[in-house]
Amino acid sequence: MKHRAPFDLLFDEFNEPIPDNHFPQYGMSARAAKATVNSESWSDCQPVMNLSSFVTTFTEPEALEIAHQHFLKNYIDHDMYPQLFAMEGRMVRWLHQLWNGPKDVDPYGTATVGSSEACMLAGLAHKWNWRQAREAADKDGSRPNMVTGGNVQIVWKKFLRYFDVEPRIAPLKPGNYRLTTEHLDRLVDENTIAVVAIAGQTFTGEDDDIQEIHDWLDAYERKTGISIPMHIDGASGGFVNPFLYPEYVWDFRLPRVQSINASGHKFGLVPPGLGWIVFRERKIFNEDLMFYVNYLGGEMPTATLNFSRNAFQIAYQYYAFLRLGFDGYRKVMRHTVDNAEFLRKRLVDSGYFEIMNKTQRIPVVALTLKSEFTNFNEFDVSARVRERGWVLSAYSMPPDAQTVNSLRVVVRPHLNHNVIDELADDIIHACQWLHQHGGTATAPVLHDPHKVAASKC
Prior knowledge:
Layout: H1 6-14, H2 30-40, H3 61-70, H4 82-98, E1 108-112, H5 114-136, E2 145-149, H6 154-162, E3 166-170, H7 184-187, E4 192-198, H8 210-224, E5 230-233, H9 241-244, E6 257-263, E7 275-279, E8 291-293, E9 300-302, H10 312-349, E10 353-355, E11 364-369, H11 378-386, E12 393-396, E13 405-410, H12 417-437, H13 449-455
Parallel strand pairs: 2-3, 2-4, 4-5, 5-6
Antiparallel strand pairs: 1-7, 6-7, 8-9, 10-11, 11-13, 12-13
Helix pairs in contact: 3-10, 10-12, 11-12
């Protein structure tokens, strides 16, 4: 039998066909496995050019070393990794203070897998509190509802369906893409467990009218005797508002705000996936939602939907807070919003776009093409700049503003002024080319939310 050189074996491994539908029968060398994994993702976009996403796509070398040091640790095993648990508790207290929580209370909160888990924990706490209050008053506790706007992120619709809470969703309309008090009089009632308002929404980056909603609920209580709490979804704005707009009242300074979530993996500057949920005080998080386990060592409390998960994001967030401090976060957010304002001005001045977010609070630029441009659309622009490597979101707005298309750019802290200038050039050049030659992109076929709702009746 002819002897094969080691190089031949290695070369064969790099060309080994990868099965689609059955588990690989044999292994391969570490080098070949690494090369195969990386080569299959060559055509994916560069994360640093993905301006469709809010999540962090850059890292400092020291922060990456922190991640490497801690990525084999299990977050939930507090008995084995008590110092990580201590870091988490300290950061909860920092966030409670950052969001102007009352000083004479015991703060409570936890790190989560993104804001999705955080939102669900907040929703469950409000549902449990509402139900127990109803039962204590000898009233029906079987028909909870939650009020929010059509601009909420999908996690809230998941919560409502998964945990059997009736959705009371205020529709949007062209020109108004946020929750105001317009529809509250027909949505809020004694079965409302909470009103969810957004600080930094996904679609346009705007805040809901948080103060106006709070004041409306005060008046509602005076009229009916029914007190309804608020939850603030600060997934994007929670790490921007405190640093840039300290006088803006959106947080625990409003007495009805009982819980706030934010995404550490967005403007908290941590890689995916880390979220935070912080309650106004410990008693808001219902004790019935707490579990105590001892099978990982000493007894430990757990109140998260997930159990085992990677711990490196906790250490990474701790590094970011220590590395930047309040002043550092303020400078990063100021630089990022300034770049967003620069991009916004360049694109509006080009004559192709109208701005959708009237208030530039977080680093998001949301645009829609002027009605005079009929031979191409926002989806064409997104596809055209993709040829340059940029990934920008194009989508239709939620009900009842589905007729409006948006092109959204999430301006990231790692982009400098020159890069933003180049991005503006690429978007404008794409529009010039499309205006001359026309576009062919069509919006994706979506589920009709009205038909979906009707099919469940």
